[in-house]
Amino acid sequence: MKFNRAVIKVGSALIAPDNNGCSGKYILAIARFITECQKAGKEIILVSSGSVAAGRQLIQHGSPNPSIPTKQAMASVGQLKMMANWQRFFDVPCSQLLITHGDLKDRERYINIKNTLRILLENNVIPIVNENDTVATDELKVGDNDNLAALVALVSEADSLFIFSDINGVYDADPRSNPDAKLIPEIQSITPEIYAMAGSTNNHIATGGMKTKIQAAEKAVENGINTYILNGSDSQVFEKLLKGENPGTHFFASTEFTKAKKHWLKHTLKSNGKVFLDKGAINAVVNSGASLLPSGIKALLGDFNAGDSVELIDHDSKQVIAKGICQYSSNDLTRIQGKNSDQIQRILGFCPSKVIIHRDDMVVIAT
Ligand code: GLU
Question: Nearest residue CA, atom 8 of ligand 1?
Fold first, then answer.
């Protein structure tokens, strides 16, 4: 199993097992796995549930199904416990991102989240994402962290999504009632039959069940992201993963996606401006697969916002060589063109990204 950037989702049942607040019982092995991945040069983003479960003991409730404000108070106190529990198993720093569906739907905030994640990874920090439960109302909520993890995998352009819970993967029948049920190791396409095999959750502290995991897998694979459902309570699972084996259910990424994204960038997305490059920048973009830095920009044309698409043009021949999504508006770019990335902060007073167009957001048209 090959991957470079993965989102790892850890469910409440692993964070706060035994209905007794946070514990290291399972997450120690997960943290070790993450550390091994990082040593091998891989980038990891965590999506961690468990704030409500971790705060449950600390807020009076007296009902198995507390009210929403009570759960929000549990999330508020539990989030800190959950973060502290993770941090004690890592030597590298952890960071907290609390987001709602409303944030992911808003274009500007989406780009902010994307840039923040990129910078955290560049600085060897482990981003830990959860839904902002204390402020999110139902309309603004993703609702479960399986789907949230899929959205985080999209925004961070991960190539893999690992969903860890206390189940081994997808079975062809309910393993609780059918001893002959078999684990399905590989799923090439998600059909209604696959959904039909997914029972509902049987764990009272978890929000999602197999259904939300399959929904998450569907979102991810459609976007070119390999997805795995794995048992994070079984330490052998991590040994197998590190050997490159698949110990759970692997949903295959759609190969159509990369082609489709490049096609969309090249043919569908309308350009709002032109950015003229010197020879060095053209060489870096075309031959080295590099991102575009401000230093190689000679001139600009057009009015565009951050997040708009622009054409990259050879300043000498005026040939269009690439297209991509620009991290800066034309107003800001005018002030930093020709400068080094390290000067962006001083000139603009902010620096959401050291690159002007990230490699993942670019398609080369002519060489
Ligand atoms: N955001 C919730 C929490 O931290 C978890 C949601 C889920 O388990 O899917 O408690």
Answer: 207
pLDDT band with cut points at 50, 70 and 90 for residue 207: low
Does domain 269-364 match CATH 3.40.50.10300?
no
Distance (Å) from CA 183 to ligand 1 centroid: 26
Burial class of residue 23, CB neighbours in 10 A (0-12, 13-18, 19+):
middle
Alpha carbon of 51 to ligand 1 centroid (Å):
7
> What single letter denotes the amino acid at residue 2?
K
The predicted-structure confidence for 339-366, as pLDDT tens digits, reads as follows: 999 999 999 998 888 899 988 788 898 7
Query: Does residue 248's CB lie within 6 angstroms of at least one atom of ligand 1?
Result: no
Computed on alpha carbons and rounded to an integer, the radius of gyration of the chain in Å comes to: 22
pLDDT-derived band at 208, boundaries 50, 70, 90 = low
Contact in structure between 332 and 348 (CB atoms under 8 Å): yes
Q: Quick check: CB of 54 below 6 Å from ligand 1?
A: no
Which amino acid type is present at position 120?
A: L
Report residue 203: phi and psi, to 5°: -110, 120
Q: Which of 72, 145, 200 to mutate to test the pocket of ligand 1 (most atoms within 8 A of CB)?
A: 145
Cα of 209 vs centre of ligand 1, distance in Å, is 12
The per-residue pLDDT for range 273-310, each reduced to its tens digit, is 999 999 999 999 999 888 999 999 999 999 999 888 99
Indicate if the pLDDT at residue 64 is higher than 60.
yes
What is the rounded distance in angstroms from the CA atom of residue 226 to the CA atom of residue 119?
A: 23
Question: For residue 159, what are its two tokens?
Answer: 């190539």
Does domain 5-256 correspond to CATH entry 3.40.1160.10? yes
Query: In the chain, where are the structural domains located?
Result: 5-256, 269-364
Cα 90 to ligand 1 centre (Å):
22
